[in-house]
Amino acid sequence: MLNFNKLCWVDHNETETTKDVNNRIELHLINKDDLISKVIHNGQCNEQIKCYHNKYRTADGSCNNLINSRWGKSFECVNRLQRPVYADGKGSPKVAKSGKRLPSARLISNVQHSSNYSASKFTHMLMQWGQFLDHDITSTAMSTLKHVFDCCFQSSHECYPIEIPKDDQFFSQFKSRCMSFIRSAPCSTCNKHREQINALTAFIDASNVYGSTDNETRTMRINDETGMLCSQRNGLLLPPPPNENDNDCSTRNHRIRFFAAGDVRVNVLPSLSALHTLFMRHHNSLCFHLKQINPHWDEETLFQEARRIVGAQLQLITFKEFLPLVLGNEYMDKFSLKLLQSGRTTYNNSLNPTLISEFSTAAFRFGHTLINGEFHRIKSNGESQRYLLRDNFFNPNPLHFGDIDNIIRGMIGTPSQRFNPSVAEDVRNYLFKRRHEKFGLDLIAVNIQRGRDHGIPGYTVFVNLCFGINITSFDDLETLMTRNSAKKYSSIYESVDDIDLYSGILSEQSLPDAILR
């Protein structure tokens, strides 16, 4: 197996040493069991699913826990660490502590998160694995608006557009004052407040390869005696999307250049499409070799055993090689996240794996600051070709032209951006830009707005929850971030308690041996 740890380190020395923030502040982390006990479980009105003995995981994540069969299932309500702070107490987007409107999410992006590129000691593969992993465990279901195509020009109670400042340094040249934003779909709960839906299984189970429902999994399979996944070009590329009411791989329209995979976001970046392709090929290779070893196995056994191996490998890469780089050894030890050298853990049927809203809405989006606006395709002879992210959203052409190996070498051979408040302009001004367009969306503004949409409490609430630190003024922030960052917040927000969780996380200084604090 590839050593992901080696793929994520750039072969050069750090140009700037990380400050030892442990000397600046004594951390008072609550322990793992206390944190778990604080999770707010949403009372869902659905009955438990009847489970049957099965050697393999279900596609939708149900029946992983035989007592609580819906825990971790796709299309279920998320849980929370803190109760939401909706403006009306029920579901209206969050407002400031004073009751006034919060500052524009785009304004915060401009002041606190404008680009100032600095290379990290990690390669772009680290960022890309984070996105690939994210697409295995979280996808917030969106509201469907009939007859509403742009929330800037049409009104709906599910619209929550982002105001663009009149003097915006980028968008003002296009006379754009509004960014369309649709609220996340509400989940049916027994609670009295609005909650959101995770459309994926909450487990690291390779649902981004196989799908998070039975139907999605069926559309990915060839359904012959091989147990393999659908593909094209003699197994080299992912398949095109399925035809309506027809899942047969052989009848799909191969003139469509977009790809189909277990997660619908497969086409967002060429580098993401490349990882999806890699694991499709890996599954099919496993099926081929398993059949040689076990010629008596039928199609279902081959498929499920290969799926089982791929899911385990995703878990192994994540816990052995990805998380130690992100969290550092201290946190890996403190929260018992390191893999055992021998033996095994026992199943804890009281541990709810359901996705936590603050994690998916804010914390796990930390990786957006690692995105480098410049990607590279590196040939086997070392020749490198640069391409800009802003020009390659939803662009599958490089894969059709045989560039998958070059794209993967490029991720391994070029650095990501350093974790800091600065975010690449390619996602801050050009997110999802089409080729004929001059601008796109602002990912940071969208993330901030999403937190308000979900009623996520302010940054200071979680500093107190996780570190035991009571922040009462903007000056107090200097224990967690630079003085410059704290000063910028004081110029934007009315109260320190209004700072949005996502923005605050990006502004923290890293621990010495980790990306995050």
TrEMBL record:
Residues noted as binding heme b in the record, renumbered to the chain: H368
PROSITE patterns: PEROXIDASE_3 (PS50292)
Keyword Oxidoreductase belongs to the record: yes
Entry-linked SUPFAM superfamilies: Heme-dependent peroxidases
KW Hydrolase (keyword) present: no
GO molecular-function terms, A-Z: heme binding; metal ion binding; peroxidase activity
A Pfam family the protein falls into: An_peroxidase
Gene Ontology terms describing biological process: response to oxidative stress
Compartment list: Secreted
GO CC term (a single one): extracellular region
Keywords on record: Heme, Iron, Metal-binding, Oxidoreductase, Peroxidase, Secreted, Signal
Main location: secreted
InterPro entries named in the record: Haem_peroxidase_animal (IPR019791), Haem_peroxidase_sf (IPR010255), Haem_peroxidase_sf_animal (IPR037120)
PANTHER family assigned: OXIDASE/PEROXIDASE, PUTATIVE-RELATED
Name recorded for this polypeptide: Peroxidase-like protein
Organism: Leptotrombidium deliense
